[in-house]
Prior knowledge:
Keywords: Coiled coil, Signal. The chain is of the alpha+beta class and 306 residues long. It is 26% helix and 30% strand.
Amino acid sequence: MKRVLVLLAFISLSFASQAQETTYTFTNAVNLVNPTWIKLGTLSLPQHGHMANIRLYGGQGYNAWLNQQADIELQIKTGNTASTGPVGHGFAAYASRYGGTANFLPKIRIVPNEVGANPTVFVVYLFVQPYIGGGYYTVSKDGSTTWTNAMEVAAEPTTGIYEVPFFFRTQNDTYLAGDNFFISNTTGNVGIGTISPQEKLAVNGTILARKLKITTTGWPDYVFAPGYELPSVMELEEYIKANKHLPEVPSAKEVETNGQDIGEINKQLLKKLEELTLYIIELKKENISQQASIKALETKLTSLEK
């Protein structure tokens, strides 16, 4: 264990001693009125375990780029061995906030020069909020790595992109912005694809699951209990004519406005199915009674004809 720790310490010191840090200043050339994409620059990073760190700073002194006293650190590291898959390069990014209350959620995308192979060139794009004035960022890298500053407004990159996930907290709320994953410390609500969950779990998208279990109470077995008052068919018809939906079942407008409670709607659908079963049983009994009456009339008619 001591040998491992010594080796790790040596590697860290070695990287620190070889690292070169350069500072770049944001100028008024990219003043933004609306949120937009910025091409930050291009990183040439050899394969086999090379690494670079890009740190972006914003604060009140820089007219609040990144929305007040914040910084984002992006780390890009290449793989140690040749690869035939997407593991030939590794990206990690995280953000930290120091003071301020305004949320910042810039997206970070990287476009490598190779997809699923061993890229050595990485173009870095940022999605930033409106700002005026300056700011700055630093690039820390070893001697075999080069960085070309761009800092220009660009079209949204959509082809061959890597969406960098990053983690940060603001007022104890937790964001994984690259994956749009949010946890509210205040409410305990979790959002996937949304940063404003109004329920314990809010998903802005499709959920794929092998099984879904919902606990509920008031399951409508009482429909089959003695004394249950089943509405007459005529009463049901009048309700449907007036409301255009079944009793106790939400209307289309209600569902469009408020969504639907799966547990509750299942209860109501089962209740209607059980009531329908009782209607069918009553109808069958009436049918049997009518058949018996018809049979009796046929017998009487036959005897009269004789």
